[in-house]
Design a protein that fits this description.
- By secondary structure, the protein is α+β, with helices and mostly antiparallel strands.
- It is built from eleven helices and 44 strands.
- The strands form ten sheets. Strands 3, 6, 9, 10, 12, 15, 16, 20, 21 and 22 form a ten-stranded antiparallel sheet that branches. It has a ten-stranded mixed sheet with strand order 23-24-25-27-26-30-31-34-35-37.
- β4 and β5 form a beta hairpin.
- The longest helix has 16 residues.
- It starts with 10 loop residues before the first strand and ends with a strand.
- The N terminus is likely disordered.
């Protein structure tokens, strides 16, 4: 009787295996060669100077290699360092020709060395030699080679269990039970969690690798599956979500029973230097992610979120890699999906994390919510990224006749859960956390956190795109009126973000509020400045902008192709676009003592030159913005510019009690202490009773309750009409009629080349009705 081939005794080389006692079927094996003394192939990577040598003797000659990656690391690099311009170049020698290795997307943290490894295995000795021609900030000891090949798997780690895959709104949430439970209790503080994260690899490196395939994932198909990425243990914790609001709450509650602490808080401006990186944050309890609204993941759950590029069916699997050995051989219902996941393409929707407990003594009546927004390109530079948001919904919003949304951009305290910002009872406040990179309302270079040079890629508006997506979701979620969306922020971070984001969103943002040194033209900001002009020096925020955009001299391109430092020049943007499009109304709290005063004056001048609508105050060196919409409880009648209604761009000559300030400091941009002045704070209109038809436009005008010297007669330009659009050169009849009693003024005006109706002298005082009519044509 003939014996079956499986039972035959043999000693034959087969696909890199020497099988005795039977022919063994080859498996897909993924192992790491490294300089480390532990792992699958310890101390097989040797580095001398710039030369990398990998001993491949443990891999049989002719082994079938599916893929090979050189994974490399370096110290953090940002746009303040000249090394960021230098490319990372690693060369392989193939057929006596040096070839540059390809840096692989989407993570840009590894090089494709498949061809080079295959060539090395065909030669004797089996050795791979590479040259790191250029590698700034390289960490050579962490360099390793990962090879997937057909062989016999040995020493495999235990697989994960409890895999769950859920797709929703363009995002696929992949969760699993980690093989080690590193946190034993339900609640863990940041100090303890950070110690666990820092020590995660000291006793053994564990990684969870996520795969996706159009076919069910098995030992036979894994070699052809798409590698999405890998995460470390404890990926279920929202590390970026720690907020100083939570620390402030702990301290304030402690002060209730500690009189000395209470006195200290009152006396020392205790919270003025708070930030999420301060040591005191160690006692704040860390939140676990919720991938379903308000339901935190169980302790010990891993998480990865994928954004499919197209609508299709897919299967998912999660493999464990321990000390350089990945378990790709064992696939069950516990670590791979047996049914295909129906996927769509999209940016996803924010997921409710819970209700943060951040109120002590006082809070605005309403509810604060914490959301996480997961993102990938084009809303982030890398896959599997997440960003935190605070949302405040005032009490009674659901029954309010008017429903508004406002976006608040935080300052250096990074208070996104409970921002110090005026909350109206008819306005939902959205507050993004601008982390881990300080985007300043725009975005950052896509090379950050990767091995790419700043000469590669662009500074993309990742932050702005994420805010756009969240805002679109929030308008639907809260049934808000799209024409009543505003944004605002304090300081050189939050105020700059408000300007950068809001001014470039005409038709979406109705009005922009900014104060406390917002920066409309960052390239003009010196790295150091004298606050008082008496020889003292202070550091500016300029280096923080360099870090995310690259130095201005590098001319890194923005997403539009223009150099980024030109792209963020708002005076230039206003002058280039402000005549063609109606910009959002601007309320600017400027200041002649601000380090950004020169840029502020240029922005105000650009708004005036292009006949766009703004008001500003700059008293005694600096003033807060004038809040909008004005309400009756502020001693004034309502005033709310809207993005879906016409605006009046007013050019008032009412500069306040110090007209010389305008020529001495406003026109020159010269910093200094002065009584200051104001622009256009009195002229206002009623947006709710506007009549806008092809033949006629009507608006109610009035004067604000602002006391200062000067007259109230202003040049007025009509902007942003929807239907009333007389042609250039056409004659328009205008009249201003008092609503109570008084004289009616009237006349004719010719429409200018831009299509604007400009009235040279309109009086603002008691309420009047402005009427414009097209004459016979």
């Amino acid at each position: 009787m003939m014996r079956s081939p499986k039972a035959m005794v043999c000693c034959l080389p087969f696909a890199g295996l020497l099988c005795c006692g039977g022919i063994l079927s080859a498996e897909t094996v993924q192992e790491t060669w490294s300089a480390s003394p532990r792992g699958a192939h310890p101390e097989t990577v040797h580095i001398e100077g710039r030369q990398i040598t990998v001993d491949l003797q443990n891999l049989s000659a002719g082994a079938k290699v599916h893929s090979a990656w050189l994974v490399a690391f370096r110290d953090p690099i940002d746009g303040t360092m000249d090394e960021a311009l230098a490319p990372v170049e690693i060369l392989a020698n193939a057929d006596d020709i040096e070839q540059r290795l390809e840096l692989l997307p989407p993570w840009y943290d590894r090089f494709d060395v498949t061809t080079a490894v295959r060539a090395a295995l065909s030669n004797a000795p089996r050795r791979l030699t590479l040259l790191a021609k250029s590698f700034p900030k390289w960490q050579p000891d962490r360099t390793r080679l990962e090879i997937s090949y057909e062989g016999q798997a040995r020493g495999l780690p235990a697989p994960v269990r409890g895999l769950k895959v859920v797709h929703r709104a363009g995002q696929t949430f992949v969760t699993w039970q980690e093989v080690e439970r590193r946190v034993a209790k339900e609640n863990v503080a940041w100090g303890e969690l950070k110690r666990l994260l820092d020590a995660a690899d000291q006793t053994g490196e564990v990684r969870y690798r996520i795969y996706r395939h159009r076919e069910p994932i098995t030992a036979d198909t894994i070699a052809h599956a798409e590698f999405l990425g890998e995460v470390k243990p404890l990926s279920g914790y929202n590390v970026r979500g720690r907020s100083v609001d939570e620390l402030m709450t702990l301290v304030r509650r402690r002060a209730i029973d500690d009189l000395d602490l209470a006195k200290k808080l009152a006396r020392e401006d205790y919270f003025s230097k708070y930030g999420p990186s301060m040591p005191e944050m160690a006692e704040v309890v860390m939140n676990r992610f919720a991938v379903e609204d308000g339901r935190p993941l169980p302790v010990g759950t891993g998480l990865f979120v994928h954004h499919p590029k197209r609508a299709e069916k897919a299967y998912y699997g999660v493999a464990v890699a321990r000390d350089g050995v990945a378990n790709l051989a064992h696939w069950t219902d516990e670590n791979t999906t047996r049914a295909a996941v129906e996927e769509t393409a999209g940016t996803g929707e924010p997921v409710l994390q819970g209700t943060p407990d951040v109120a002590v003594f006082f809070d605005y009546p309403g509810t604060r919510w914490h959301y996480v927004q997961w993102a990938a390109p084009p809303l982030a530079h890398l896959p599997n990224q997440y960003y935190n948001w605070g949302v405040f919904v005032p009490r009674g919003y659901e029954t309010s006749k008017i429903r508004r949304l406002s976006i608040f951009f935080h300052d250096r305290h990074e208070r996104f859960l409970k921002p110090a910002w005026p909350h109206r009872l008819d306005t939902v406040l959205l507050s993004p956390h601008d982390a881990p990179y300080r985007s300043y309302g725009y975005g950052y270079h896509e090379s950050l956190g990767t091995l790419r040079s700043f000469k590669e890629g662009k500074v993309e508006p990742f932050f702005g795109r994420r805010v756009d997506a969240f805002l679109a979701w929030a308008i639907k979620k809260y049934n808000a009126e799209p024409g009543r969306v505003s944004c605002g922020g304090h300081g050189e971070w939050g105020g700059t973000a408000a300007l950068q984001y809001g001014i470039k969103r005409p038709g979406t943002i109705a009005y922009v509020l900014a104060d406390a040194s917002p920066d409309p033209d960052p390239e003009k900001m010196p790295y150091q400045y004298s606050f008082y002009g008496r020889g003292d020096t202070s550091k500016s925020h300029r280096a923080e902008l360099d870090a995310v955009w690259g130095k201005a001299s590098w001319k890194c391109p923005a997403g539009t192709g223009n150099p980024i430092w030109q792209e963020v020049s708002l005076p230039a943007y206003v002058r280039a676009n402000g005549r063609k499009i109606t910009l959002p109304y601007l309320s600017l709290g400027a200041g002649s003592l601000h380090a950004t005063w020169l840029q502020e004056t240029e922005l105000m001048k650009a708004y005036l030159e292009t006949h766009n609508a703004l008001m500003a105050e700059f008293w005694w060196g600096g003033s807060p913005f004038l809040p909008l919409p004005v309400s009756a409880d502020m001693g004034d009648r309502p005033f709310e510019p809207r993005s879906d209604r016409p605006l009046l761009a007013v050019a008032s000559r009412d500069y306040g009690p110090s007209p010389q300030f305008m020529t001495e400091q406003f026109e020159t941009g010269k910093r200094g202490y002065s009584s200051g002045g104001r622009l256009n704070t009195k002229p206002r209109w009623e947006p709710e009773d506007i009549v806008d038809t092809p033949e006629r436009l009507e608006m109610t005008l009035f004067s604000a309750n602002v006391v200062y010297a000067g007259n109230d007669t202003c040049e007025v330009t009509l902007r942003g009409t929807r239907l009333f659009k007389p042609a250039p050169g056409e004659n328009v009849r205008w009249s201003v009629r008092p609503l109570q009693s008084g004289r009616t003024d009237s006349g004719d005006v010719v429409v200018g080349d831009e299509g604007w109706v400009i009235l040279p002298a309109v009086h603002f005082g008691a309420a009047t009705r402005l009427i414009l009519e097209r004459t016979a044509r």
